[in-house]
Amino acid sequence: MYLTINGLHKNFETKNGTLIVLKDINMIIEEGEFICAVGASGSGKSTLLRQIAGLDSPTMGEVRIDGKLVTGPGPDRGMVFQHYTLYPWMNVQQNTEFGLKLQGVPKAERREKASYYLSVVGLAKFAQSLPKELSGGMKQRVAIARSLASEPQVLLMDEPFGALDVHTKESMHEFMLDLWQRTKITVFMITHDVEEAVFLSNRIYALGSRPGTVRKEMTIKLPERSHHVKRLSVFHDYRDELMALLRQHGQEALVAA
Amino acid sequence: MRAKSLNPTVFWRLAEDIPKPLNTTLVVTSIALPLLLWFLITAIGNIDPKFLPSPAKVLEAFGRLWSSGDLLKDTVASLWRVGVGFLLACLFSIPVGLLMGSFASIRALLEPLFGLIRYMPAPAFIPLLILYLGIGEEPKISLIFIGVFFFNSLMVMDTVKFVPKDLIEATYMLGGNRLQTLLQVIFPHVLPGILDACRINLAAAWQLVIVSELIAATEGLGRRISVAGRFLRTDEIFVGLIVIGVIGLGFDLLFQYLLRVSCKWASNKR
Prior knowledge:
The complex is a heterodimer of chains A (257) and B (270). Chain A is of the alpha/beta class and 257 residues long. Chain A has a domain at 3-76 and 152-256: Rossmann fold. Helices cover 38% and strands 26% of the residues of chain A. Chain A contains seven helices and ten strands. In chain A, a hairpin with a 4-residue loop joins strand 9 (203-208) and strand 10. In chain A, helix 3 (107-120) crosses helix 4. Chain A is globular and about 55 Å long. The model of chain A has no long low-confidence stretch (mean pLDDT 87). Chain B has a single domain, classed as Orthogonal Bundle (MetI-like fold). Chain B contains ten helices and no strands. In chain B, 34% of the residues are buried. The A-B interface holds A 53, 55, 72-75, 77-79, 81, 83, 85, 87-89, 98-99, 102-103, 130-132, 143, 146-147, 150 and B 164, 166-167, 169-177, 180, 184-185, 188-189, 191, 263-266, 268.
């Protein structure tokens, strides 16, 4: 058990009383897994990720990483946001080094690490470029390199490809799979894109909406991880099942509201 | 039939750049046309030079004041007052504004007070300043300080609003503490905004120094204008006005240049 979420509840106090956003979430993620939490809007998936990141604290329950209780944000969890969060005044190299700089890593060491992870994401050539000179997909790759440079125990991704066009998204999917296989990093990603989740993850948590709960846990077994797989019936079965699940719960939520 | 479309106008295009030659022509016209009009009116019309001196007469007065050393002395005196008052105001207002923007607590503590004082015109403080500080340099510098500090603090505060929350949280996730986030993320992010706020408020400082010198001073460009007015030396009033304008414009251009050089990353945003 590497990343565990135990009995996590999250409420928000609003003008109209208490809003239950997450209700009794339990998850167990092993080292080296690629996990997607899939949910429609209102499933509290972003809120869930924020609890794991430590940017917000749960009303009840806990998040543990390698046994250690999460009490706040920190570089042991790399975070890739949906919106571009590169520092616009720093070039790609400086952006990638920045986490290490904040942590007080000596200059030579952080330069070396940053260069290594920039080459891992295939952007070594762009080390001196400013973020505004990069495409959306390249920006997210720098953000990934920046997170990896701190050598986190888990990479958290908040709909990281949501803002990208279809073609860039596809190439980022292949990039992610390749990266995952090479670095053996544990990935926890949230998305509303069902195909993305099936294609990338080895296990999926389907979240129901209002309040967000785990409705189903699915292990994904695909014969291979490449584009062709999207034409196989096994891929379609997973996708349809998830779609039906999300749709059904979406309607329930509407009725309840 | 011709498709209905936007006319291929160049001059009236909304939010578009114009060709460089046209731009240059218009910029030159902007200065040259009033000068030409001024020249023509004084040359053709029979106008009393005490009312409107010709450009040649103003140039002559400029030469006179320059060679006597008075103009330089006045300019230096005004520049010194603006320099000290404005730098002091920036020195305090930038950190204060940054804190107000970054911490809701500091904002709640200071914003009501600053918002109130901002609406008190700085020249209205002159009688008080004279009462408290006499008629030396102190009240003049204080006047500039009051006129710049509150505005600049609030404007710097506003720039912090535009730092994306994600950027701050990303910094926490990378292991940054609050002080590091403030100094290494928020400050560089708002630096272009700060420079711009200072540029705008420098114009206010420059106005206030002239106002302060109109009241009580032995030297300074404002003093020069007021003395010239008393003796009906209209040409010298014009010299004073033009010198004030040119120096102000020079400062403005200097700030714009600083902004371009120090914040290349932000250059496309404005």
